[in-house]
Amino acid sequence: MTEKEDSQQPDQAAVPSGAFASRKGVTALVKGKYRVYADLPLPVLDMPHAKAFQAEEMSSPDRKIFALVCDPEMPIRKDHIKTRIGVKMEGVLPLAEAGVALWPPIGRKTMILLYEMPLGGRVVYSKNYGKLLPEEEAEKITRWIRPLLMGINNLSMRGLTHREIRPDNLFFLDAEKTKVVWGDCISCPPAFDQPSVYETIESSMCSPAGRGNGMTSDDMYAFGATLISLELGYNPVESLSPEELLELKIHKGSYASLIGESRVSLALIELLRGLLADNITQRWDVSSAQLWADGRRLTPVQAKTVKASQRPFLFNNVEYYSYRTLAYAFCKNWDTAAEAIRSEKLQAWLIRGFEDKDTAGAIEKSVDMALVRFSTKEKQDDFLIARVCMILDPTAPLRVRDCAFKPDAVGQMLAVYANDEKMLKTLIGLIATGYVESWYVLHRDRVAEQQVKSMQMVLQKPELGMGIERLMYDLNEGLPCQSPLIVRDYVDEISSLLPALEGVAKRNSNMNPIDRHIVAFIAVKFGTKVSDQIAMLNSPKESVSTQGMLHIFSALQRTFGPEKLYSFCAWIGGMLTPIINGYHSLEKRRQLEKNMPKLVRKGSLPEILAALDDRQERLLDMSYFEQAKKEYAKLSEEIEFLDGNREKREEEGLYLGRQVAATVSFGVAVLTMFLLLLTQFLRG
Amino acid sequence: MVKRETAVAGKIKKRKGRFSSFMSLSLSFMVLFPMLLLMLPTVVFMFLSMLPTLIALVVDAGSKAKAKYKWLCIGGVNFAGALPFLFKLWFGSNTLDGAIDLFINGVAFIIIYLTAAVGWVFYRCIPPVVLNCVEMSDQRRVVYLRELQAKLIAKWGEEVAEGVEIKTPQFPAAVARKPAAPDAVKTPAD
Questions:
Q1: Are B20 and B66 part of one and the same domain?
Q2: Structural domains in chain B (count)
Q3: What is the mean pLDDT of chain A?
Q4: Which of A227, A338, A631, B36 has the fewest CB atoms within 10 Å, measured from its CB?
């Protein structure tokens, strides 16, 4: 680095070096080990969706770390947290710890990432930072290219992609500024903050939330674009809008678009051509780049010529010669595209210009499919345009009007737009009506196709634990529960759910502790262990659904604790009347109601459950109740017999009376005979 | 085929039945006729004495009522009235003239027919009395049963009566009294 460059940079070495143990101020405690100082911000280390603050490890105050406090509304990348905590990887800023903590300035909990302090500060801090790569090739490779490549490779080996590779996310790990590393990529969805200059053509077409995890090849492309900026000292296409840049890349190719008239060192050209190849099969992977760094010169990448027609296709008064440009034009002119697609001119262009009967046939089939699948013209047109764009440009994302995303990023889209009802409805529609499925069908990805079908089934089910909420948590591991009850508690782990609800209970216990988000969150995080209880929860019978709720929360407390939940038990205790009323015996009900306050005071849901839902007791209650019912019916029958039909009963009474009269009469006869015989006998 | 066989078997059975009844009639006649001849005064006396019973029997036979107890009621007391005179006949002049004389000359026939009238009074008065007793017993039973039902409801709630139609009681007195305390109720659960 030159002296001039050094002078341009602020004093980034002024990062905290001392211990803060004695310092008093607004702090947040992460995992009981790290203290984050809310009143000591580090704006130089801020990320677009996370603010940096000074932090310290309480057990070793000399360790230099800083905290990135994530935006609680923004989904984070949990897979990185799981893999990278405590693991030192060359080329990547080491992640010391990550955890949820109450962040006093916003008064709610959020994810706090604790990184090792990059003592040399940020590499780039403004738009014009000057040439950063040294002139000498060997130094360029050893100090910059190789470590950064190692960073990408280390992540790749762990099945991760960085997707936030750009000059302003580079840091010097040491105070001497010899170790350069990639910065944070966890605080937002993959490539969310990436300017389109550092993204491939396909990724640039997506909305920021819909770029997906991508592949290492996407990181390699971003690495190539970053190298150009570092080499030149500025972004060569800064003046272009994202749309203009994308069009330029489509027309001229990425390498030509980014390099333009700029002059880069000859040594880099081969690497940059390899990294910025638009065709993913031609793009250099990590090993190719490492071979280059080792000095083996590979065959320079010759950009494959895009298949173009000799005849133009006229659309919106513009002549188009290739599939990709036409597909892009269709997406940008959605309202007029359907007419052009249905016209015979397109078919003629495909057959005469490309002799591509397959594509022509597929488009014709799409017209029929749209007619069969959708009833309204507008929906038919939407499906037709989206599908034709998929056919013409298979590597492009799924594009429907303003919504463009890679189908594997559907989860991130749902997470980012969790609070945007309109967008959520659009996404549900795209999944449910076969857009996403069509994309995978055209890519012949059977596994993903089946996954989409199962998503459609989940969406179709209206019961608790299913629907869009289930998909959100299924497809986003780190998404905190979005229930309005606990959204401020940032519950991203099932074990944090009950403590959060305990907190809610302390504040306000007038609401229902179960909603669609909470049930979907439990269903995803607790797996099949509670599937029966969730089925109970969906029962239309109030006693059964309340029983289901109690079972679920009881299982959670038994499995994850905490041991005592006094407020939550009191909250739940007030809702258990339907379970108590589930017993038929009024005496049993009275007894349970009498014992309920005692049980609630114990703070244990499993104990409440055991008292209320004794299987043996329930069976006995049911059995005795059935007996009582039979007895009641028998009594009713007898009453009906005695009291119901008086005429018949009178008849029977009279009949009996006559029998009695006849008996009396004969009795008199017999008695007379006996007396006469006795008299005769006595007379002798 | 089967029907025909059944019909033939039926005919044979009928013939057998007729034959056996004819045989029993013949046998009875053979036994009773000599006895009738031997006990002619008694028979004549009893015939005259039991005339009200015979009339009641004829009336009963003509009535559509299922239970024909009128002749039995009259017959019993009528027979009791005739017995002392029958003894007198047997231990006095047991001849046909004596029997007719005993019945006509004296108070015998008045007494005998009065006793028959007492039998008729029995027939008329005892059934309403018994009916009243039956009604009283029914009332008591219904009240008791309704009390049991009320106790079941007190223990198990209204659900226990689900599916059972509860009718307005016809006995005004048969309305259940206030249910007893659940603790005092004996049910299968106890």
A1: no
A2: 2
A3: 88
A4: B36
- Do A669 and B73 lie within an 8 Å CB cutoff? no
B8 and B61 inside one domain: no
Q: Is the pLDDT of residue A653 over 70?
A: yes
Instruction: Answer yes or no: is B190 within a domain.
Output: no
A629 touches B at CB < 8 Å: yes
DSSP string, B118-150: HHHHHHHHHHHHHHHHHHHHHHHHHHHHHHHHH
For residues B27 and B43, membership in a common domain is answered with no
Q: Does A622 touch chain B (CB under 8 A)?
A: no
pTM over 0.90: no
Work out the minimum CA distance from A543 to partner chain B, whole angstroms: 15
The verdict on B109 and B48 lying in the same domain is yes
Model confidence at A17, pLDDT cuts 50, 70, 90, reads very low
Nearest CA in chain B to A637: B164
Same domain, B101 and B162: yes
Searching chain A, which residue's CA lies closest to the CA of residue B123? A661
Contact A628 B154 (CB under 8 A): no
> Helix (H, G, I), strand (E, B), or coil: what is residue A553?
helix
Q: What is the b/e burial string over B142-174, where b = at least 16 CB atoms within 10 angstroms of the residue's CB?
A: bbbbbbbbbbbbbbbbeebbeeeeeeebebeeb
Which of A642, A659, A664, A676 is best to mutate for the B interface (most B CBs within 10 A)?
A642
**A636 in reach of chain B (CB within 8 A):** yes
The residue type of A120 is G
**Amino acid (1-letter code) at residue A402:** D
Q: Are B18 and B86 part of one and the same domain? A: no
Calculate how close chain A gets to B38, using CA atoms only, in Å: 22
In whole angstroms, what is the distance from residue A209 CA to residue A49 CA?
13
Whether A588 and chain B come into contact, CB under 8 Å, resolves to no
Q: Residue B101: pLDDT above 60?
A: yes
Average pLDDT over residues A358-386: 90
Which residues 461-480 in chain A show a CB within 8 A of chain B? none
A540-555 residue pLDDT tens: 888 889 989 999 999 9
Domain that holds residue B118: 39-184
CA-wise closest residue to A362 among A340, A372, A347 = A347
